[in-house]
């Protein structure tokens, strides 16, 4: 168990270093201002979303699957 925790901590440190010096650093910095969003979450979102201006507030939630919706036929 200790080895797993050490590995996780090592990976967290590596991700933190990458997030501090990458093209996503400005986005990560802004996302970390949100309550509950740490470096790992912010970096993951920044990398996955990529081109933030293509989204509005509502469409980003739908893209991430955070907005409930129904997809059914009229039959």
UniProtKB/TrEMBL annotation:
A Pfam family matched by this chain, by name? Transposase_20
User: One GO MF term, please?
Assistant: DNA binding
- Tell me, which GO biological process terms does this entry list? DNA transposition
Q: Which InterPro entries match?
A: Transposase_20
* Residue span, Transposase IS116/IS110/IS902 C-terminal domain: 30-74
Source domain of life: Bacteria
How is this protein named in the record? Transposase IS116/IS110/IS902 C-terminal domain-containing protein
- Mind giving the lineage of the organism this protein is from? Bacteria, Bacillati, Actinomycetota, Actinomycetes, Mycobacteriales
């Amino acid at each position: 168990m200790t080895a797993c925790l050490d590995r996780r901590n090592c990976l967290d440190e590596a991700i933190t270093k990458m997030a501090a010096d990458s093209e996503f650093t400005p986005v990560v910095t802004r996302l970390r201002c949100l309550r509950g969003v740490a470096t790992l979450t912010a970096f993951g979102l920044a990398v996955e979303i990529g081109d933030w201006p293509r989204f509005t507030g509502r469409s980003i939630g739908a893209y991430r699957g955070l907005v409930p919706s129904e997809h059914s036929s009229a039959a």
